[in-house]
Amino acid sequence: MSNISDSIEKFILNVIGESREAIINRNDLANHFDCASSQINYVLSTRFTLDKGYSTESRRGGGGYIRLFRMSGGDSYFKNILDDIKQHPVSNNKCVDIIERLMLDGVISVKESAMLVSILSDRALKNAENKDEVRSGMLTEMLIDVWKNI
User: What is the pLDDT of the chain when averaged over all its residues?
Assistant: First the structure.
């Protein structure tokens, strides 16, 4: 049996569907799952992140909503990821999420994805003094190259 976070994620993914965008009322969703709105926030902040190819916009208050947008491999996606990498070094997990999103969007192949995950893994970078910073630099160069060639 899956936990509530899995159920909420699955529900949101179904709402987004093929449209790539959804507007959801946080309170309605919390009522639907009989949970606190903080549980909805948790799912959004951990499973619908920029690394995973999602942009979220939230408006609080009585008429508040959550707007989710599944980004594709377009310019804004690359710009946002590159800006985020400049501000925060990339962990192994975050790197895998970014590469997986590029693969799912058809920007890179399954074979290229597997290769990149291996090359940028903690195991491959075991001798690097600061793995996350080295990974960030390598991923940045890869993203710029892929972006130029799509």
Answer: 87
